[in-house]
Amino acid sequence: MRTKPKWLFPVLALLPILGLYCCIRVYPIIETLRLSLYQWNIISRRKPFVGFANFIELTSDPLFLEAIFNTTVIAFSIVVITIPVGLALAALINSRQGLRRSGVYEASVFLPHVVSLVPAAMAWKWIFDARLGPLNALIGLVGIPAQSWLFDPVLSLLCLVILCSWQAIGYAVLIFLVGLKNVPDALYEAARLDGASSLQAFRYVAVPLLKPVILYVSVITLISSYNIYAQAFVLASDVQGAPGHLVRVLVLDMLENSFRNYRVGYAAAEAVILLAIVLILTGAQFRLFRDRSRA
Amino acid sequence: MSESDHPSSGVGQHRVVGLVIDTILCVVSVMMLLPLVFLISNAFKTPPELLAWPPTIVPHQPTLENIVSVLRETPLFRWIGNSLIFATLSTASIVSTSAIAGYVLGKFDLPGFTVIFTVIIATAVVPFEVYMIPLYLNVQSAGLLNTWPGLLVGYLVMSFGIFLIRQYVMTSIPDELLEAARVDGAGEGWIFLRIVLPLMRGPLGALAVLAFFQAWTAFAWPLVVMTNKETYTLEVGLALFQTGFTVDIGHLSAAAALALVPSALFFSLMRRNFVRGVAASGLKE
């Protein structure tokens, strides 16, 4: 019997996938880095190398600064809301473990995370609507005057944070629940024998053990919040013919620079900054992890 | 439950605590679902009832008028079809590339494989939005705008999928099994298809649900690649439809509710798979 070389199958199987990765992942990533150093304009033929000029221009571009400010505020607000609320909900659901209704709670909290973004954003857009929305009617009951939620620069940020937190909480709860199930019962027993209440046991036994998971969920939520676009697109687009207040987020500013202003190199520089933010967040997470495991 | 054997507190007190917890969780669950419930109920309301306060959950005079006019005004079923095709093709590609690459990288140790795996994982850190524009320029220069291949290019592989399958292959598929098959004279392709693939059904199912979800909710990429009303995906079509001048809340809700139903149905059916996939993605450390 003729024997084929051992390496033939793995190499032949991997090669097409490797080619695919090079074409649709590695090459565009390198190309982004390269374009950020060029004055690369779709409509002009000359595309000169300009070094870091794009980045220098970004530091004094009011639209970009607004975008990065908004995105940062939104991302951190989402984390500040999602992590404590998610943790509390996970703890409560975990304490009802084994009862049939705990599955119902879990599913209801998780559903907003899996329904399509655009219909969900449209549901909230109605809630926030200045004329027809139930939110204004609701705050009217306690004497607060109606607000134009989606037109006000500050309130529209708040609306975006509420919408994104509503979607992110389900993910946090799910991961925290998995983490809570991994906490050995013996630890709770020990805490109880020492006279700790359930609340204390959670605070001093479960939370410290969950720290890596909390850190992980925080970073994942931060990174995905830095990339939000669809939600801003839907909430900010015209409402009943009246223009909504455009919440300028990073991805929106990037797309506008490349597709409306045709400044691809400039947009690539923005993409590089987005990448840098993501890398810093990921790096911080790894460093914190290492410090913890050494301690 | 183990809660009830606390030495210093009575059964009655525990029942009260349990009741409080159930009440809180019920209120939270209702609040989480309420926006979606209102969306669906608004789809069936008449214009006057849409203005009524307090908003009703079950419409007094349910009407199909909104749904009928939305289906007349927009190619909504076409968009749903487009999204289905896109998500199915993307899922098929991600599942097969992940199965092959995960198996090969997990069970064969050739020089360079560690480097390849590292590169694959490293690209996962980079958000799609970062390299979307060069990818778009490539698709454009290849003349693939407004075509299925152009749309799919962004969603053919998933680094996390390769990671997931490799992890599974290394921990759950014994080398002895593969060796035994080789001794019996089985070819490598046969071993992969007949022995390895059936064993990977669990993680592949979880991965498939994640991949389908990712494509189904994709937004920025389909928005720039598919610019023709007939080729929109559901999310894009809906987002652009709601920017329209004269569209009222009833019609918007009808369109959104029609879009919501397939995904809500699919993910409640697939909940177990989905939860497994998401949980695995959360515990990759």
TrEMBL record, chain A:
Keywords: Cell membrane, Membrane, Transmembrane, Transmembrane helix, Transport. It is found in: Cell membrane. It is a multi-pass membrane protein. The keyword Endoplasmic reticulum does not apply. Pfam families: BPD_transp_1. PROSITE patterns: ABC_TM1. The keyword Transmembrane helix applies. Its main location: membrane. Residues 68-285 form the ABC transmembrane type-1 domain. InterPro entries: ABC_transporter_permease (IPR051393), MetI-like (IPR000515), MetI-like_sf (IPR035906). The chain crosses the membrane at residues 7-30, 67-92, 104-127, 154-180, 201-223, 264-284. PANTHER family: ABC TRANSPORTER PERMEASE PROTEIN, INNER MEMBRANE ABC TRANSPORTER PERMEASE PROTEIN YCJO. Belongs to the binding-protein-dependent transport system permease family. This is Bicyclomycin resistance protein. It comes from Bradyrhizobium iriomotense.
TrEMBL record, chain B:
The keyword Transmembrane helix applies. It is a multi-pass membrane protein. Residues 80-270 form the ABC transmembrane type-1 domain. It comes from the Bacteria. Signal peptide: none annotated. InterPro entries: MetI-like, MetI-like_sf. Keywords: Cell inner membrane, Cell membrane, Membrane, Transmembrane, Transmembrane helix, Transport. The keyword Cell inner membrane applies. The chain crosses the membrane at residues 16-40, 84-105, 112-133, 145-165, 204-224, 244-267. It is found in: Cell inner membrane; Cell membrane. Its main location: membrane. Part of the ABC transporter complex UgpBAEC involved in sn-glycerol-3-phosphate (G3P) import. Probably responsible for the translocation of the substrate across the membrane. The complex is composed of two ATP-binding proteins (UgpC), two transmembrane proteins (UgpA and UgpE) and a solute-binding protein (UgpB). Belongs to the binding-protein-dependent transport system permease family. PANTHER family: ABC TRANSPORTER PERMEASE PROTEIN MG189-RELATED-RELATED (PTHR43744), SN-GLYCEROL-3-PHOSPHATE TRANSPORT SYSTEM PERMEASE PROTEIN UGPE (PTHR43744:SF8). This is sn-glycerol-3-phosphate transport system permease protein UgpE.
